[in-house]
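During the reporting period, we have paired protein sequences with backbone structure tokens. One record among many follows, to show the layout:
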Amino acid sequence: MTDQQPRGDVTLDDGDLDPRPVAQTLPGLVPGLGPDGRPRPDAPLVAVTGVTGYVGGRLVPELLAAGYRVRALARHPDRLRGRPWYDDVEVVAADASEPDQARAALEGVAIAYYLIHSLGTGPAFAETDRRTAEVFGTAARDAGVGRMVYLGGLFPEGEELSPHLSSRAEVGDVLLASGVPTTVLRAAVILGSGSASFEMMRYLTERLPAMTVPRWVRNRIQPIAVRDVLRYLVGSASMPAHVSRAFDIGGPEVLTYEQMMQRYAAIAGLPRRLIVPVPVLSPRLSSLWVSLVTPVPGGLARPLVESLVHEVVCDEHDVAEHVPDPPEGLIGFDRAVRLALARVRDAAVTTRWSSAAVRGAPSDPLPSDPDWAGGSLYVDERRVQVDASPAAVWRVVEAVGGERGWYSWSLAWRVRGLLDRVVGGPGLRRGRRDPGRLLVDDAVDFWRVEAIEPGHLLRLRAEMRLPGLAWLELRVEPVGSADDDADARTEPWDGDAWRRAPVVLAQRALFHPHGLAGQLYWWAVTPFHGVVFGGMQRNMARAAEAAERARTDTGRTRVG
């Protein structure tokens, strides 16, 4: 299930949207653009980690607009292809936890943004985060980096913290102790389209008109709009060398979680919610409930819920000495929600909590050799001729999943998604970032886009819990292409062919089993492939043909 659209009676003030880069509210603090509208050749070079994540993916264009040269660090650079800023940055393959790679990637860098965490990857995430921060801090010192900037979590002093908040605090301390001047920004709930915290609040409020909730819903929280977070991140790059410390950052209001849900309901045009706090819901039970009601899976929901057990309110606002508040003030809760809902309504969610490919998720690339030496590779391949143009078929292919579903036996897909959620997988509720357009590394329900060639190929890699690795591949090919050649057409369609029917919709499901369990799994589900995959292919073909007929009929009407 994807992002729900705002209700039709929601008042979303487009005049409230501010499309300007945050740098325009930071005069004198950023280098500024050159005469050609691009960063100057001598502008400071900034390295950004976590560029496939929610904040990192939004920070890169803001830094470019501020006049910085940007080096994007990624373990798998190919996953950044398709980002609108890809051609404007230097992309470097580097794993921040590998000393040699981190050191080389930071050579010549003036400011390094550390936006990495292993939240949701399992019980050892804190150890992984600590080690990665130690390696990165040492590499930054050795490379002569002038400043590091880290976005951590806001937490109360003197309390026993949840594992999540404790780890975020520890990472900040590690970076501050590295010998490199470091800015640690500590934020509570981040309000923005696609953020995990916002999605959790949104779905709980929209789906539950009445709910029993833990007592922590009356704890105080100081949320902050993602636009203000980005503004602080960009502004922190210019802090003087003698400043090396943590800063609390938050919006202009302190609210309880209950108040946030009620105000969200009012903005979204929903009736007032009946919220009854009870003392018996532990963080574990609460996170299980959240994972069932919202798209946020249990592995991510639990640390978020555990963090809400604490009151998270800023103790100081010292950051304003170095990054002054904007003239119009920081963004309040109501405006932040309107901004987020407007982006959801307009399908303009640029990054989402599911954007990041986390460690431990299936990530092996699809073997291109049919006689792959990695072991058994089971294949279910189907082809059907479609009486529609390549463009019409591709639009159906690229829009698969999410609200549109999977075009076959919806009950089977829902049951499979529910079983995956029960065992800790993402299930179907992650949905899609955009209802009609995909980029490499986008999440699509319990799949992730591994490769996309517009007009021709969509390859999805399974992230559901499986005893093996799985892929689903959809291709649009000319009639007459070789049935036994998976790469029969790799060149782009020319202008005439892009409009010409018919074409072939080719579909492959591939599975590399792990051990006996994987072998048994494949043979157990094989009898259902005809219904699930066969039905999916036939119904996608029918949808494309219906769209083609509608387009043709509309064209004839206009001519007549």
